[in-house]
Design goal:
Oligomer: single chain
Radius of gyration: 17 Å
CATH architecture: Orthogonal Bundle
Helix content: over 70%
CATH class: Mainly Alpha
Structural class: mainly alpha
Strand content: under 5%
Length: about 160
């Protein structure tokens, strides 16, 4: 594909990277991962079961999107457009995680605000966590997903 075609189709590098990220965030199922997460939150009452399902969902989405976000992070150091896109994507990810935290509001540890719970979800779903544990430490996806779920349950929910 020519550079001109990329610009016409995606509006330049930021549009192309945004489209690749969106495809990764969709997951591998026939239904978008975000829609599956929302349905889960509506249909399941047990907060631990919701978080365990999020751990599984993370093992589907992270291998698709974390490498792109890590490349974006590196590009953002020298490219202002990529830095702006990284900030936009991170803000959207934090917004989404705060939205997810709302489904746990009646089960959060005493004194833990929804915004703080969202920040914890944002941290554990970060490409950096995937990089450290899967890429650098060689953890398998199941181990990674179980760790994410266990850590979130411990950090967010009342014992």
């Amino acid at each position: 594909m020519s550079a001109e075609s990329v610009y016409k189709t995606f509006g330049g590098k930021p549009g192309l990277v945004r489209a690749i990220c969106a495809k990764g965030l969709a997951g591998s199922g026939p239904i978008h991962a975000e829609a599956r997460s929302d349905a889960l939150q509506r249909e399941v009452d047990d907060p631990r079961a919701i978080i365990r399902a999020w751990g599984t969902l993370t093992t589907e989405v992270a291998p698709r999107v974390a490498p792109i976000l890590l490349l974006l992070r590196a590009a953002a150091v020298i490219d202002g457009e990529m830095a702006a896109l990284q900030a936009e994507i991170e803000a959207e990810r934090l917004r989404r995680m705060t939205h997810n935290a709302l489904s746990l509001v009646d089960h959060l540890r005493a004194g833990l605000a929804v915004e703080d719970a969202g920040a914890v979800l944002w941290t554990y779903s970060s490409p950096e966590m995937y990089e450290l544990l899967v890429i650098k430490q060689g953890w398998g996806l199941r181990r990674y997903g179980d760790f994410i779920a266990d850590a979130l349950i411990g950090a967010l929910l009342t014992p």
